[in-house]
Amino acid sequence: MINIAVTGAAGRMGKTLIQAIIEADGVQLSAAIEQPGHSAIGSDAGEMAGMGRIGVPVVEDLAAVVSQFDVLIDFTIAAATLVNLAVCAAHGKRMVIGTTGLTEREQAQVAALSAQVAVVSAPNYSVGVNATFKLLEMAAGIFGDDVDIEIIEAHHRHKVDAPSGTALRMGEVMAKRLGRDLSEVAIYGREGITGERARQTIGFSTVRGGDIVGEHTVIFAGAGERLEITHRAHSRLNFAEGAVRAARWLADKKAGVFDMQDVLGLRERKSD
Question: In the chain, what are the domains?
């Protein structure tokens, strides 16, 4: 049995993670953490998530319960994630990171700490989204430089980063396949007299509103035709179930940074 802790336990994603853990085989929720002073402190994590009493109280100090779990799942904010990873690394606890919006410097900190403990860090834990990454890589290779590529993403009004981590990863996957540097070709929105579109650019458009769970559409626009590849999430549960799958996969890994392509066996390995 793999013992899992969830931080940000009282949030929308935290509650969904608790539900997914309780419903999954081979794992159990052993700790739930929230920020100090949160109204959920002391409450039963199962009851808070609408799953009934499980005898796991919500606490405010990760270090106080670090001996109670094998893997921590963190879908919070960058600053909190890095603090939590430092605690996990110091105690040899593996970690699944779903936090998005990390800067290059913060990603480097994750990589450095992963020398001490195994980490899965991914912008999206949906199996469907990760299948989409592979489809986009394939499509980019087929079309090459003969089409214009645009990415449109939509999320709920509470999401704080833009574009989404998933949209950025989509851009990275296609740019790499096309031999481009995304940092040089990405266009984040357009306004005014922009001039003719450069073929090498990859455009990003962001929508925020209501309770949209997550939608991503990539347009490959050519002369006389266009291909659109779309993924729509109808529930956060698929993200949570993917994160639990990642935690289960991570249980026997010692160190290093992995992502869902590794978890799902989609990573292409170079032959000897």
Answer: 2-121+236-263 (3.40.50.720), 127-233 (3.30.360.10)
